[in-house]
Amino acid sequence: MFFLSNFRTLFFWINFVPFLAFNQINQITLQHYQNLCSNKFAGRGYVNEGIYHAQNYILNYLKDSIGLQPVLDNQLFIQNFTHPVNTFPNTIELIVKGKKLVAGEDFIVHPGSNSFEAKRKVYYLDTLSFKTKTELTKILSKLPQKSILVCKSGVTNNKTFYKEISQYYQQNLSNHCVVFLHTKKLTWGVLPVQFNNCFLDVLEDKFNATAQQIKIKVQAKFIQNFSVNNIIATNQNILPTDSCIVICAHYDHLGKMGQNTTFYGANDNASGVAMLLDLAKKFKVTQTKFPIVFIAFAGEELGLLGSKFFVDNLPKNLNIKLVLNLDMVSAGENGLTVANANNNNVFFETIRDINSQKNYLPVIVPKNGSANSDHFSFHEAGYPAIFIYTLGNYKHYHDTEDKFQNLNLQFYPKTFNLLSDFILTINGRN
Question: How far apart are alpha carbons 180 and 315 in whole angstroms?
């Protein structure tokens, strides 16, 4: 008889069950996740060449490991473009009453911030001090020039006041810093602009509000023309009369905020890239009626820049039947969402029918059009495009805990099988 004491039972569920979930994933998939989420890849962002390590890994796998073919007229697998980006390659530091707060956990730097370094007195701003925008502006205009404004959560939570303060500093001041105190989870981002000032978002319970002065050091670097590549390959030769299925996923993420804080992007979007690479491997050896084009996009987190560039410079030999965009697909215990389903009802019904027949995932949920991932660039240009993301209990998004160790990949194989069957079906194979 298999029997465990209470302690051993707890140990089993904590340690062995996640192992079972990972053990269902083939080793190549696990290797994709581990590499894409590794320290070497530095969050696939713009510090320490993280995005270039990711680019080379994806290109080498599609081109050399599984032997896909180029799509572009010049017989290259890459499509180069440049974009501006604000980066934080060096020191990020906030010290309050002798305590160094933890970047990425206790506080984040607004992604558009400029460099700032000073130890200055603090001026606390509370909604008790004002009620209207006019009163707020009057207070801001009289602040001591060599002070750091700290906005308590009552101010920060008011979107109007938050916006007014930010705009006031941008329009009237430079080389200043504002600290916004928050009561909710902090999420980071990346921006293609750099402001005149520095803005910090800090968890209120981590900030000692008795501090009369604080020390801040933020080193920012704005890059006007950062060179990146979309990676594009196909499973078979594309004839002029062919219609193609495009499977895409963005491989960029937020990267590093200073040298000690990394946003790994395991679910967003190492998961989509791993799924894309797995599907590429499968359909390299599985004949399809319609050629399948696999695209790993850069620049998504900056505003869908890679997909927009691709659509604006669409290769002449691509007649697109469907775009299947994969973004955040590591979960699945609560099902899967098909975004833009209202504009592509036939494709949505096909996925739902397959799932009903084979019982892969608990539910397939339709969602109306969304503009927050790379399918949107194709949709705006008039191509059928859907966005797939899975539903689950995974809460980490644009934070330092979105890392490989925290994923539950139990439903990843089922999502892979569902999408494989869907692709075969629209290819007339099932």
Answer: 46
Torsions phi, psi of 221, nearest 5? -140, 120
pLDDT in tens, 54-75: 999 999 999 999 999 999 877 8
C-beta atoms surrounding 165 within 10 Å: 23
Residues 264 and 320 in one domain: yes
pLDDT digit string (tens) for 188-226? 999 999 999 999 999 999 999 999 999 999 999 999 999
User: Quick one: which H or E segment has residue 214?
Assistant: strand 213-218
Number of structural domains, the chain? 2
Among residues 218, 239, 264, the one where a domain terminates is 218
pLDDT for residue 347 is more than 80: yes
Compute how many other C-beta atoms are within 10 angstroms of the C-beta atom of residue 94.
Answer: 23
| 135-147 mean pLDDT | 94
Secondary structure of residue 175 in the 3-state scheme: coil
Q: How many residues does the chain have?
A: 430
At a CB cut-off of 8 Å and minimum separation 6, what does 184 contact? none
